[in-house]
Amino acid sequence: MTWARWSVPCLLALAACGTKESGSSDPQLRSDMPARSASFYVEHRDELTEMETVCGAWRASQRPAASWPSVVFGNCNSVNTAKTMISNDAETQKLRKEAGI
User: Fold this and answer.
1) pTM score, whole prediction
2) What DSSP string describes 5-43?
3) What phi and psi, each to the nearest 5 degrees, are found at residue 5?
4) Is the Cα torsion angle 66, 72, 78, 84 positive or negative in sign?
5) What is the pLDDT of residues 11-64, one digit of tens each?
6) Among candidate residues 45, 48, 76, the one with its CA nearest the CA of residue 61
7) Which residues contact 38 (CB under 8 A, 6 or more apart)?
8) What is the C-alpha separation between 5 and 34, in angstroms, rounded?
């Protein structure tokens, strides 16, 4: 009796999980990458531009960020931080040059 009562909700929950085929069919939405830090992207600008393209594809998909794979979410945050660091460094260098330091 108890098994019958719980079997229907369990089957419905499993059916709602979907299958592997129901995943993203968009080849632009890559998530096959290692996690990288902002300092890595500052040192490797070519990787930064490549990851920025991947992040742009994920943003264009209009999926909620909470549904993104964690490696993509983390790397996109690292890319944004690296871009800020590069911009801040360029501004600091410009101000030092103007001040004659």
Assistant:
1) 0.68
2) HHHHHHHHHHHHT--GGGS---TT----S----HHHHHH
3) -70, -35
4) negative
5) 555 444 444 434 455 666 888 999 999 999 999 999 999 999 999 999 999 999
6) 76
7) 78, 79, 81, 82, 85
8) 44
